Amino acid sequence: ANALNIDLGEVDFAVASHAHADHTGGFHYLMRVNPDVKIYFPNDFFGASGPLTFDIGGTDPHISKELPKE
pTM for this one? Predict the structure, then answer.
């Protein structure tokens, strides 16, 4: 983000194309610097293991299966 001059505090949402760690690892940091950001994942990211949790605490309410309709 710094190299592209992007202020992560101004990001409204992020979209992960698939659930590989090299595509999702930065979301922990993004959520720390921008607690209001929404993060969208494809349906296959949500498996039989139940709700998605992060080591920063509990099930994250910012993560959604549906993109905004706007």
Answer: 0.57
Rounded Cα–Cα distance for residues 60 and 54 (Å):
7
Q: Where are the domains of the chain?
A: 8-64
Lookup result for tokens 């959520």: 31
CA 41, 44, 47, 50 torsion: positive or negative? positive
Q: What pLDDT, in 10s, does the model give residues 12-63? A: 988 887 766 666 778 888 888 998 888 887 776 666 555 555 444 445 555 5
**What is each CA distance from 54 to 4, 20, 49, 68, in whole angstroms?**
27, 15, 13, 23
